[in-house]
# Entry
Amino acid sequence: MSNDQSVPLVLALDDPAATLEQVGGKGASLARLAAVGLPVPPGFHLTTAAYRSFVAENGLQEQILATVSAATADQPISLEEASSKIGRMFAQGSMPAELAGAIRQAYVALGGDDLAVAVRSSATAEDLPDLSFAGQQETSLNMRGEAMVLDAVKRCWASLWTARAIGYRARSGIAHGEVSLAVVVQELVLAEASGILFTANPLTGERGQALINAAWGLGEAIVSGRVTPDTVVVDRASGTITTRQISVQEVMTVCSPEGTREEPVPAGKRASAVLTAVQAAQLVRIGVRIEELYGQPMDIEWVLSHNRFFIVQARPITALSRTAGFQVMRPPEWKLPKPKGKYIRASVIELLPDPLSPLFATLGLPAWNRAMHRFALAEGMGNFGGDMLTTINGYAYYDVRYRTFLMRPRVLTTVAPRMMYTAQRRWEQKARPAYKTVVERWEALKLSGASAAELLVGTREILHAAASYYLTIQSGILPAAYLTETIFTMVYEKLLRRHADLPALSFLLGYDSTPIRAEESLYDLAQWARTQENLSSMLQNMSATQFASAYQTWYGDGVAEALWSAFCQRFTVHLAHFGHAIYDLDFSRPVPADDPGVLLEPLKFFLSGTAPDPYARQAASKQARERAMQTMLNQLRGPSRSLFRRLVELAQRFAPLREGALADVGLGWPLLRRMVREIGQRLVTHHAIKAPDDVFWLTEDELLEAVIALDGGQAPGHYHARANERRTTWENQRMLTPPVTLPLTGGTRFFGINFSSMMPARTGQPAGDVLKGIAASPGSVTGKARVISGPNEFAQMQQGEILVARITTPAWTPLFALAAGVVTDVGGPLSHSSIVAREYRIPAVLGTGAATERLRTGQHVTVDGDAGIVTLSR
# Structure
């Protein structure tokens, strides 16, 4: 029986009583749309009274709250454990007879016992103007018959207590005891296409534009990331398409007897536009009506069937900044910090491909600049008299005056040779031990017991040590590797090589390096797991999210707890050695130690048994190198032989050191991130921010202000609005392609010096299907492009695809085991992408400047690593 006799268990979809309190955010929105005649599929609501009836009948409320109280918002494992326990409660609960009868009656009235319906959850704290809970609760499609519908309803109720939903409510200050869940049951539209409509452009804030994402089939393929949808921008006033990006779509979600399945998109549709211009205009007109109903820009889910649109959800766009007044973001002005300054994106900036987080821009970048001043003075180079690094439109830039500062005669003739000569010793005996000592000293601090001021001091010390470390390798190991390989290659190819001799690259492969050892470590772990009963199968069937949550906890899916614990211990050892490798120098971005789930896909590849043995590959390269060496030494005589030996040994000495040196730049990042996030957690407790990671959207001054308040027993200020606005600004800036050189006119010749050979990317690309870049690793291959923007997308990478990225760093190495080729926006002949691609013997074209802008996932491209050309197949 319902414990609230005043609220019915079931309501018609357009019933005026279908309020937020009774049918949740999604249900109330659909009721509002249906009531004014907008095209909404017919259906009915199960009210929050139905949820409470089930919970009361089965005595679950106290059990649920007790279980949730034992979980901690920033400990994913505890959230997953609580969610699993609550899920079992709902699965084992019995449906009250009155409620089951009401559901059966409404389902039959909708269309019959075998009608296909969508069963969607609708939380009372969902889709509100200031909060978006999109995707946090359950949706079941193509449910047929009473039994499937009732099971789907129970799954919806249980999804109020997913790990993500529990954590989100905790971070948003929503009491668990005050929430309940309604369910919407609607006739399933057999969609030919589906997608999302934004009635204002969420990328620019432009109110005069609407943006549509569209994919073939049901919308689950978009949500899961299995397809990249078409993107269409429509002028609202005229209904005309202003921009259209058509994506090649290989799969789509369709109905099946069990619910849904994925199947190939028919060949004739894969590269075709999902919506015609007429359909896009029609959809936008519906969207404008919905916006007028709500009085604000809307995020609308739609489906298309037999040339008719249906709306299945509508909610306010929460990502648009209200304080910005929805102003248009026009093509940006790249305003120079100094009107007559010259700036480039080179050197350390190759590790900063995206706009900087506010905290790194105000705390990290100044640490690098201060370290540079100290380094220059200590090495006798004098005072540079300015900052080496600055930001323009959120992106880091390098002041060209610093390059000319380094090219003064005294630096070139005295300081530079000394630093090159001492490069290895300074790195191995001074820089790395000093960096490691700082990290180990602060690791001994119990973070939860430290004051906020101590945490900030530790953060600054680690930053200083990291910057000093990088400047040491930048002044020694990195240029030594570049120069010795360049000189050897030039002399060998022009003076020593005969027509039948192997290319210069053959003498530099097969060496050990940190990224190669990381690959071998993961391979060893996979080989061990393959010998353990059921462990390999379980890992291959896990998602990255499941893996990250289950790490160091018994997964309990056919594998003994002791075996899972043994696996996690071995994986912990791997992360201890290699988990600090950075994806991005900006410390706001996680490292593998923070998110082990990103390593699951390469691990699955090694578990499959089809992956090449990295030990065998390296051994073969080493043998080939040694044979090539012996051949050359046998055929050369006199000065030529001595010159060859001297130059090749220097190149061989420094080439492996470069990757090892770069791999340790982030040595302190796991600890630094824990320290900063500890401050963030304290700010969450005081409701100053919503989530610990929001601390990275504060500036150094704001962080210091908050630290003083925390340690002084005072309430820190509220930073919610600032953090949200800066995140929106960052997303907008990330859509830009930062020029490699500034000002935009004048090319790459600064102060009479041509810097084109030092550029990490081309400054312009011709229109058409060809991208030109740096020929970084030989060979040619044709395959599907996979554009990866960061570690959160690593799981999308499939074996045999062409990896397309802004840059790669040592932390990206696991993807090279899957890739058939590599293309980057930024990178030179001795960048990480080049060196590792050669070791993997896959073609690479780097420094195109525009690959991630011009190429789309699923497109067929040819990578010519000999000519430095990428060709898009049509």
Summary: The CA atoms of residues 33 and 40 lie 7 Å apart. The first strand starts at residue 10 and ends at 12. The radius of gyration is 29 Å.
